[in-house]
Amino acid sequence: MNATTTPKPQGCTNLQLRQLMRRVTQQYDAELAHAGLKTTQYSLLSFALKLGPSRPADLAAAIKMDASTLTRNLKPLIAAGWMRMAAGRDGRSRSVMLTPEGVAKRAEAKQHWKAAQLRLNATLGEERVVALHALIQDSMALLAPNDGAGNPV
């Protein structure tokens, strides 16, 4: 290949992303285990803290998770007493929220999350992490569902 030839993608992008995610998740999960949480659980606690009491559908949309996955991931957090499900604004809706114990658990876990993030930054280099974040955000925007006219739905 000469210097002017643009390289072509090789292999399966899905497989490569999944392999990368497994390695990154292992790093975060190992650190968050000190707080008794998995990465997905920490994310749910963080989004619930940020959003406040929310409909499960709104929490699922914010975290980009389908409703059935959200329900499955909420069960251990509710059983541990870190989140609770309550009646929503009307009799047909539900609201999910952090409990005071959940706020404390999230604060404890945040220290471990930060340690994992700093270790990843050191391993990959901050410049690569910034570039990776930009590539991920651009790709997410390009892959976002739209109405056919390019408008996000």
UniProtKB/TrEMBL annotation:
Q: Which InterPro entries does the UniProt record give? A: HTH_MarR-typ, MarR/SlyA-like, WH-like_DNA-bd_sf, WH_DNA-bd_sf
- Origin species: Hydrogenophaga crassostreae
What positions does the domain HTH marR-type occupy? 14-141
Name under which the protein is recorded:
MarR family transcriptional regulator
Could you tell me which SMART domains the record lists for this protein? HTH_MARR
Q: Which Gene3D superfamilies match?
A: Winged helix-like DNA-binding domain superfamily/Winged helix DNA-binding domain
- Any one GO BP annotation for this protein: response to stress
**Which GO molecular function terms does the record list?**
DNA-binding transcription factor activity
Q: Which residues form a coiled coil?
A: none
